[in-house]
Write a structure and sequence with these properties.
CATH topology of chain B: Sufe protein. Chain: A
Radius of gyration of chain A: 22 Å
Order of helices and strands of chain A: EHHEHEHEHEHEEEHHEEHEHHHEHH
Helix content of chain B: 40-55%
Oligomer: heterodimer
Distance between the termini of chain B: 56 Å
CATH class of the largest domain in chain A: Alpha Beta
Largest interface: A-B, 25 and 29 residues
Number of domains of chain A: 2
Strand order of the largest sheet of chain A: 2-8-7-6-5-3-4
Number of strands of chain B: 3
Number of domains of chain B: 1
Strand order of the largest sheet of chain B: 1-2-3
Radius of gyration of chain B: 14 Å
CATH architecture of chain B: Alpha-Beta Complex
Bound molecules: pyridoxal-5'-phosphate, zinc ion
Number of helices of chain B: 5
Strand content of chain A: 5-15%
Structural class of chain A: alpha/beta
Chain lengths: 396, 128
């Protein structure tokens, strides 16, 4: 049995996306900037895609810029708000402790350039508190950037509340919605979002393509200089096949969203119940306010990479916040941000299930995880110390 | 490309010398939960020969494979030869480790050194 349970890392492309891409490669090879018919046909396709995507998030077509993915969109949004703010003497930025590195590393760079960054705590639940955002806002705050849904623990932030606070205080609000677009309803008007990042490969589209929504009136700063594509805000001949693939994938994902979420939530909660039977384990992040595909657990006394490789041997592809999986020295900054100590953060497992997961597959995941955790504990010196009472259990 | 060599996978999936020695002559534990790998080595030594060795490891695949290989390499050896075991020797015997995983083999070397040191100290105390 092969079960792909790492959809937060990337997804399998949908048939619709593959077809749209092939159609783009085969039939719409013209350069959208060319004047002759073949070029203008490509331009038409490009603008149709833009309008489609804009409609899905309740934006205007001219508010959508196509990018090479989520990271680029995050970089451009943040640098835009920072540079525009600086012109008005505003150099304070608010974000959260568990953003994606595309956001956190961009903020680090800005700190070196004299910006001040406040990272809001996300608490044990993995949720930002609107009152804490309110309190952190300053006269010189030029940007609030809070992700819609976290990529590791799946917690969903109170975006509409954050949007309302920012709007009232006239502060630009950007959200990294890479894990949310195609999975949660997005309405940039109702949620009062000024900028939003999305990436196609998280909703069954192709890799290396995404988009940035920027509300009319926000003057975007260029990351890439060159031709006049994307209203002069993102140079480079458009990746039309990718954009068409993304659009087809998004259309399909949004069309089936409710049905998918209902099914995945059922399986997600089934997995949570099953894995909770493992002694000295804990779910990471709020149990309710999380993506319907995300399950993230910590198991005391074991290390994540070993767990992943042994699960892989049993046909299960998953991920972990362990340091040794990433080559980093520290375990996941997300798990540390929700207060998990190193010992426990190392032994974590993220399952991000797909829309077509079955109960039988969930049963296999639960059985395999139980088995592997017990096996690794059987020769873990940490587990020995815990069970012999030389160390205190942290989880339950 | 696979993350690990076949040899590493072999020792990770079927680690040798897993367990504890209750009446060990030397025990060494190194690493900490912060860095993510902890190894504990148990030695049985008879007239300067390592007659048995067991390990317990909390850590990544590379740490578990390194523990397994290190125990294989010193089993049956004289104490003074085991003292000379290096992390390079462990890594080489595993047909190499990814660069950011070399620290796991260092831990295996250190765990054996620690167990041998524990043995040496016990010997000293016995002499007194
Ligand atoms: C929350 C979040 N932001 C940004 C990114 C980066 O997106 P991309 O891989 O398209 O650059 C990812 C994906 O890894 C993500 O999960
Ligand atoms: Zn390691």
């Amino acid at each position: 049995m092969n079960i792909y349970a790492d959809n937060a890392a990337t997804t399998e492309m949908s048939e619709a996306a593959i077809n749209a891409m092939t159609d783009g490669m085969r039939n719409w090879y013209g350069n959208p900037s060319s004047l002759y018919t073949i070029g203008q046909k490509a331009k038409e396709k490009l603008e149709e895609a833009r309008a489609e995507i804009a409609g899905i998030i309740h934006a205007q077509p001219r508010e959508i810029i196509f990018t090479s993915g989520g990271s680029e969109a995050d970089n451009q949004a943040i640098l835009t708000a920072a540079l525009n703010g600086k012109k008005k003497g505003k150099t304070h930025i608010i974000s959260s402790a568990f953003e994606h590195h595309a956001v956190l590393h961009t903020l680090k760079k800005l700190e070196k350039d004299g910006f001040t960054v406040t990272l809001l705590p996300v608490h044990e639940s993995g949720l930002v508190r609107p009152d804490e955002l309110e309190a952190a806002l300053r006269e010189d705050t030029c940007l609030v950037t809070i992700m819609t849904a976290n990529n590791e623990i799946g917690t969903i932030q109170p975006i509409a509340e954050i949007g309302a606070i920012c709007r009232a205080r006239h502060v630009v609000f950007h959200t990294d919605a890479v894990q949310a677009v195609g999975h949660l309803p997005i309405d940039v008007e109702a949620q009062q979002i000024d900028m939003l990042s999305a990436s196609a490969h998280k909703f069954h589209g192709p890799k290396g393509v995404g988009f940035l929504y920027a509300r009319k009136g926000i003057v975007l700063q260029n990351l890439i200089e060159g031709g006049a594509q994307e209203r002069g805000k993102r140079a480079g001949t458009e990746n039309l096949p990718g954009i068409l693939g993304m659009t087809a994938a998004l259309k399909e994902a949004v069309g089936a969203m409710e049905q998918h979420n209902t099914h995945m939530k059922k399986i997600r909660d089934y997995l949570i119940r099953g894995l909770s039977e493992i002694p000295h384990s804990a779910l990471n992040g709020d149990a309710e306010r999380r993506l319907s595909g995300n399950v993230n657990f910590s198991f005391e006394g074991i290390e994540g990479e070993s767990l992943l490789i042994l699960l892989d041997q049993k046909g299960i592809s998953a991920s972990s916040g362990s340091a040794c999986t990433s080559g980093a020295l520290d375990p996941s900054h997300v798990l540390l941000a929700i207060g998990r100590v190193h010992d426990v953060a190392h032994g974590s497992l993220r399952l991000s299930i797909g829309e077509d997961i079955t109960v039988q597959e969930a049963d296999h995941i639960i059985e395999a995880t139980k088995e592997v955790v017990a096996y690794l504990r059987s020769f873990s010196p940490v587990w020995r110390d815990l069970t012999e009472g030389k160390k205190e259990f942290i989880l339950k | 490309m696979a993350l690990y060599s076949e040899k590493v996978m072999e020792h990770f999936l079927q680690p040798q010398n897993v367990g504890v020695i209750e009446d060990a002559d030397g025990v060494g534990e190194v690493g900490n939960a912060k860095c993510g790998d902890i190894m504990k080595m148990y030695l049985k030594i008879d007239r300067d020969i390592i007659t048995d060795v067991k390990f317990e490891t909390f850590g990544c695949a590379s740490a578990i494979a390194s523990s397994s290989m290190a125990t294989e390499l010193i089993k049956g050896q004289r104490v003074e030869d085991a003292m000379k075991l290096t992390n390079q020797a462990v890594a080489e015997a595993l047909d190499g480790l990814p660069p950011h995983k070399l620290h796991c083999s260092v831990l295996a070397e250190e765990a054996i050194q620690a167990a041998l040191e524990d043995y040496r100290q016990k010997q000293e105390r016995n002499k007194e």
